[in-house]
Design a protein that fits this description.
13% strand; 401 residues; two-stranded antiparallel ribbon; 9-stranded mixed beta sheet; Rossmann fold; single chain; 40% helix; 15 helices
């Protein structure tokens, strides 16, 4: 819902005088495999087809830079990690900040077999029967991500690596999708060593006012559909033009785009990476209206509910007691989107069922917000390097000997 309003805001802002003109960096246009190769890492592309016909491209980093320079590398003793992105994201979110900051690279350099997932709807997905110009293609929310996409990706990783289990790391909607899977397909608990949830999006009562405004008062998804807009997506040339002419004033605190975003996700000018943010915005991926409506339904009902019979239908809570893997909940102290209070509520539910491993701040930076989990300027030192050590401890505690 936040990004929908942000995109519309960009359209309204187009053409404002006084904005600096800037040109996008190479990182804005390269594919994920191209970015990984440019960074000096080996990369593989794998395709998996879900039970309901969606085709997903996954990106694998099977070794770190030092190992990649050798004649080859051995998979013996490797530990597999599947990382899944959030709303309007893709596998690029975990590599775009570069080798010294991005989680995927840091894990690969520590010897892990890193798999980056993609959820239906983004540029790395398609369908066996429908194109993205078909309304049928967009009839999904994160319910289908959890019921079909994540299980298919887990099975792919395990089939290729011949491992019995993997580690799962999710960010925002990537966590929502895992909790849906654990609720709807609890047999997949047996295929996961542990689950690290970054900014988990499960309870969203703090977003009720925004959801009500967007879905009930303004009826934004219905209006967009009536205009023939099948999903939340913009032409790349238009997005390029908007970013070049609207955003990124000389001082971050004067940047109208980021000021608007910080109103929603939490203010953190110090972690604003001016050099990469334009490229990151350009890489924003499409979303289905139902994804946004489903999150809105959760916010308005204050229930972690399935989609069921629609946004205004009865709430049916997902069964979180089906979660049987150790879950680590990491939150941002200044995350206004997935608020600390809502994550503490989730922690109570998981603690009652015995699946809570830990709930704690992502780092000691008091301004750490929702976007900082993937795009903070000091992401490596604040979050990811300590997170790699924590993941190692989870493997030692729960993984195979």
């Amino acid at each position: 819902m936040v990004f929908l309003i942000f995109r519309l805001f960009l359209l309204l802002c187009f053409g404002l005088a006084g904005c600096e003109r800037r040109y996008l960096r190479k990182e804005a246009y390269d594919t994920v495999p191209e970015l990984i190769t440019s960074a000096g890492y080996p990369v593989e592309k794998h395709r998996v087809t879900t039970e309901d016909g969606y085709i997903i491209q996954m990106h694998r980093i099977p070794a770190g830079r030092r190992v990649a320079r050798k004649a080859g590398f051995s998979e013996k003793g490797k530990k597999a990690i599947l990382i899944v992105h959030g709303l309007l994201g893709s596998s690029s979110d975990f590599i775009i900040m570069g080798p010294e900051r991005s989680l995927a690279y840091l894990l690969a350099d520590e010897g892990y077999d890193v798999w980056l997932g993609n959820l239906r709807g983004n540029v790395y997905t398609s369908h066996v029967n429908y194109t993205k110009k078909s309304p049928k293609f967009w009839e999904f929310s994160f319910h289908e991500h959890g019921k079909y996409d994540v299980p298919a990706m887990i099975d792919k990783v395990l089939n290729v690596t011949k491992l019995p289990r993997l580690m799962y790391v999710g960010y925002s909607m990537g966590t929502t999708s895992f909790f849906v899977m654990a609720s709807e397909r609890p047999e997949y608990n047996n295929k996961v060593i542990s689950f690290v949830a970054l900014a988990p999006a499960v309870y969203l009562a703090n977003m009720k006012t925004i959801a009500m405004t967007a879905l009930k008062t303004l009826e934004l998804p219905q209006r967009m559909r009536s205009q023939g807009m099948l999903s939340l997506v913009f032409r790349r040339d238009l997005l390029d033009l908007l970013i070049r002419n609207v955003c990124f004033r000389s001082k971050p605190e004067e940047d109208i785009c980021m000021r608007f975003m910080y109103m929603i996700v939490g203010d953190d000018h110090e972690q604003f990476d001016k050099e990469l943010t334009a490229a990151i915005l350009y890489r924003v991926q499409p979303a289905s209206w139902r994804q946004l409506e489903h999150f809105g339904k959760i916010a308005m009902s204050d229930v972690f509910t399935s989609w069921g019979d629609g946004v205004w239908g009865a709430a049916r809570a997902y069964n979180l007691s089906n979660v049987r893997v150790p879950v680590s909940l990491l939150y941002g102290e200044n995350d206004m989107l997935t608020e600390k209070n809502q994550i503490m509520r989730l922690a109570e539910v998981l603690s009652a069922t015995g699946s809570l491993e830990v709930v704690r701040p992502a780092c000691d930076w008091a301004k750490f917000n929702h976007l900082d989990f993937v795009f903070a300027k000091d992401l490596g030192t604040l979050l990811n390097k300590p997170l790699v050590d924590y993941i190692k401890s989870l493997f030692n505690k729960y993984g195979p000997s």
